[in-house]
Amino acid sequence: MNTPAHLLLGAAAFGRPDRRGTFSAALLGAFAPDISLYLMVAVSIWGMGIPAETVFRELYYSDAWQAVFAVDNSFILWGLALGFSIWRRSAVFTAFCGAAMLHLALDFPLHTHDARQHFWPLTNWVFESPFSYWDNAAYASVVSPIALSMSAGALVIIWSRTKALWLRGVSLVLFLMELMSSGVWRFIF
């Protein structure tokens, strides 16, 4: 899924306006599995001047990049962190880790050749799904509207839970970003 969809779904599932800090924690947790990608892409393209085509066709698939993705996309590591947060009864840390786990659970069935090592460090195995959120050759024309619908549902949930303008504003901006990005990926790929 696109990152804005992950943020909306994580916030809807784990953000509780009545539990201080959980909405922000859920947003950050939903973003956490993608942060290394954003940082490495930004440094490569804007810091090092590497063409985007090289970044996404070569560096993304390199052993070095995949090793980083294995860590921040590990069901094992995030599961341990979530278990610890529940044991400690930390609403904020549970929202953070729960949103990250939801991110992984939604990514797992929607990545084809670009899949990650979700069970690292136990194994380097990669599940290459027949479905993709971005690749039309792998049913993105079906998956993407479903993801967009889920994002709209998450927006409704967030708005129904809070009257806080900043929460509503952030969630609306995320939905608009998802609306734009889901259409962009289908057009590009």
From TrEMBL:
Q: Keyword set for this entry?
A: Membrane, Transmembrane, Transmembrane helix
* Stretches that traverse the bilayer: 25-52, 64-84, 91-110, 137-158, 165-188
- Determine if Transmembrane helix is one of this entry's keywords: yes
Highest rank taxon of the organism: Bacteria
Q: What is this protein called?
A: Cobalamin biosynthesis protein CobQ
- Organism for this UniProt entry: Boseongicola aestuarii
